[in-house]
Specification:
The protein is an alpha+beta fold. It folds into 2 domains: 25-188, D-amino Acid Aminotransferase, Chain A, domain 1; 199-390, D-amino Acid Aminotransferase, subunit A, domain 2 (D-amino Acid Aminotransferase, Chain A, domain 2), CATH 3.20.10.10. It is 20% helix and 27% strand. The chain has helices spanning 84-87, 111-124, 132-145, 222-225, 228-236, 288-301, 325-333, 379-392; strands at 29-30, 54-61, 65-66, 70-73, 91-93, 96-100, 106-109, 157-166, 179-188, 199-204, 241-248, 251-257, 261-267, 273-277, 316-320, 337-344, 348-357, 366-369, 402-404. The strands form 2 sheets. Strands 1, 2, 3, 4, 5, 6, 7, 8, 9 and 19 form a 10-stranded mixed sheet that branches. Strand 6 and strand 7 form a beta hairpin. Helix 2 crosses helix 3. It is globular and about 65 Å long. It is an enzyme of class 2 (transferase).
Length: 406
């Protein structure tokens, strides 16, 4: 059953407790499309540009709870113009992927992490709660229905976008007690068309992606729109993405790159390496890829697995701690900064080749140039990407991370 607090008492206010229906996979209805779309060649795919034949939909009413879920042909919705999602951005989502395993069975990568984060995001913007296990079961059924849309080519996948939007039809400034949950699927190839070629980042001191006490640690639609204009300006200056900075007493702290988490590889005097990423301080999104990289590099150092191309004796010391653009500059001068890469569900791992930064007392942008490697990726970024993709696509089994859809 859903959270018993959800009971409408008028004007958008909720009281309880009364039990109301939660998401129930046993009530799922499936209506297959009578007009199937042609499936494009994998090499022609643009991220998010093509949708599969079907989608999953369920709605929430404060009196009747969650409706019986439906898998039905992909198509538009009809929503009231006063809906909360339009007026107050009560929109949350997740990014997940489905892959084809060696046996032809669709697989998901650590989907429990996405469900947990989606539930946290719903709570943060006061959207109705839902049963995460039930939603995951429904997502698996949707993937099975549209499994032919999963590109059977390395580095390609079926991107999934579970979304919940507030649909309370009122201009009252309050939480939405009505909601629409839907999941859409999009076959995709590499996020960056540059392939393994390093991307460039422009560090921005004029705008921030997130701030202490804000919503940066949740996957809300509103977190992304503020980056569109600065991203456009960065592109005009020849950079692929933004590097978001946040200033405190230590200086300009590195936070995220575009919509991705960030790692740097720093050499140590003892021959080992430090792998550093900003901490989850409330301004950083707890990325599934980020968490996976920390886990597998720790496992490598503990001798539980060996990362491809990295000697077992090469220890990788992981650190979740702040670092600044000045730290990066100093590490480069000391020949210690070996790699920088950005990570996320869409891109997996994207190496960084240069970072543009404008000092406060200088009108010109200067580039911090990262070491270059044959093939575009450094040994650590290549190793963690190779390991994660092998797990995602079922070539390497690890900790139950690859979940079959049957």
């Amino acid at each position: 059953m859903s959270n018993p607090e959800w009971r409408s008492v008028g004007n958008g206010h909720l009281e309880g407790p009364i039990p109301i229906p939660d998401l129930d996979p046993s009530k799922l209805t499936i209506t297959l499309s009578e007009s199937l779309k042609p499936i494009p060649e994998p090499e022609s795919l643009i991220f998010g540009g093509t949708m599969s034949d079907h989608m999953l939909v369920a709605s929430f009413d404060p009196v009747t709870g969650w409706s019986a879920p439906e898998i039905k042909p992909y198509g538009p919705f009809t929503l009231d113009p006063a809906s909360s999602c339009f007026q107050y951005a009560t929109n949350i989502f997740e990014g997940m992927k489905a892959y084809v395993g060696p046996d032809g069975t669709p697989r998901l990568f650590r989907p429990d992490k996405n469900m947990t984060r989606l539930a946290r995001s719903a709570e943060r913007v006061a959207l109705p709660p839902f049963n995460s296990d039930a939603l995951l079961e429904l997502i698996k059924k949707l993937v099975v229905v549209d499994k032919k849309w999963i590109p059977n080519l390395e580095g390609h996948s079926l991107y999934m976008r579970p979304t919940i939007i507030g649909t309370r039809a009122s201009l009252g400034v309050t939480a939405s007690d009505h909601a629409l949950l839907y999941v859409i699927l999009s076959p995709t190839g590499p996020y960056f068309r540059t392939g393994p070629k390093p991307i460039s980042l422009l560090a921005t001191t004029q705008n921030v992606r997130a701030w202490p006490g804000g919503t940066g640690s949740h996957k809300l639609a509103g977190n992304y729109t503020s980056g569109f204009s600065p991203q456009r300006k960065a592109a005009k200056q020849g950079y692929d993405q933004l590097l978001w900075l946040l200033k405190d007493e230590s200086g300009w702290k590195v936070t995220e790159a575009g919509a991705m988490n960030v790692f740097v590889v720093v050499g140590r005097d003892d021959g080992d390496i430090d792998l550093v990423t900003p901490p989850l301080d409330g301004t950083i999104l707890p990325g599934v890829t980020r968490d996976s990289i920390l886990a597998i590099t720790n496992a490598h150092t503990a001798g539980k697995l060996t990362l491809p191309g990295i000697p077992p004796t090469k220890r990788i010391h992981t650190h979740e701690r702040p670092f600044t653009i000045a730290d990066m500059d100093r590490w480069l001068e000391q020949d210690k900064l070996q790699e920088m890469f950005a990570v996320g569900t869409a891109a997996v791992v994207a190496p960084v080749g240069r970072v543009g930064f404008q000092d406060e007392d200088d009108s010109k942008i200067r580039d911090l140039l990262l070491p270059s490697y044959e093939g575009g990726m450094g040994p650590v970024s290549w190793a963690v990407r190779k390991m994660i993709v092998d797990i995602q696509e079922g070539r390497f089994e690890w900790e139950g991370w690859s979940v079959r859809c049957e």
